[in-house]
Design a protein that fits this description.
alpha+beta; Alpha-Beta Plaits; 2 domains; five-stranded mixed sheet; 11 strands
Length: 207
């Protein structure tokens, strides 16, 4: 239904009430009210990932594919991927990605063996990172959510290294030593604090 934008009508077998419509169409087209408001359900954090940066990649078609083909051949699953803007003077760019720490050395070895073929300058490995994710619904269609999250992190003095978004998750990478501070700041910003302790959802490497 989601893939083909089909409305879903949920009704009771025991009454003639209209029930619930699940749709991406406005409730009232004259008012422009949106059915799905962002529903923030929790915060997940993950210390099990590392980051590899491939430095000085020739900014040519196919080079990113070569890098990820090498990693895929080593049977390594990647999470977040960021490519920097190419420097016009050098024609080179940097590509960073995160992966499980347990696969870090395998990926480094595979990429080092392919360095001459791909033509990048060097590799940087960083296992002192942490990922924090805000979990909810309708995230991508509500820019106020990301603005609120980034404002809270800025106020806490937390630097963001990588960002990825989806309909149900807004994730970012920061330094491992600031991960707990980031989780607390996001909890407070979205009213997820609990008098009985933090309601943290502990996440693994799943997307």
């Amino acid at each position: 239904a989601r893939r083909f934008s089909l409305p879903v009508h949920v009704r009771s077998s025991f009454s003639h009430r209209e029930g619930t419509w699940v749709t991406d169409k406005p409730v009232d087209t004259t008012q422009g009210a949106v059915v799905e408001q962002p529903i923030i359900s929790g915060v997940a954090h993950d210390r099990s990932e590392a980051k590899i940066t491939v430095v000085g990649v020739p900014d040519k078609p196919g080079k990113a594919a070569e890098i990820f083909q090498v990693v895929a051949a080593a049977e390594i699953n990647l999470d977040m991927i960021v490519q920097n803007v190419s420097q016009a003077s050098s024609g080179l760019t940097d590509i960073s990605f995160t992966l499980p720490k347990t696969d870090g050395q395998t990926a480094m070895n595979a990429l080092n063996r392919a360095q001459e073929q791909i033509g990048f300058e060097s590799l940087r490995y960083d296992d002192q990172i942490g990922k924090v994710s805000l979990i909810g619904a309708g995230m991508r269609s509500h820019p106020g959510v990301s603005a609120q999250m980034f404002a809270a992190l800025a106020e806490a003095g937390i630097n963001i290294e990588m960002i990825s978004t989806s309909e149900i998750r807004l994730s970012l990478v920061t330094r491992a030593e600031r991960l707990d501070d980031a989780v607390r700041a996001i909890h407070t910003a979205f009213g997820l604090d609990s008098t009985e302790g933090e309601a943290v959802v502990y996440g693994g490497t799943g997307r």
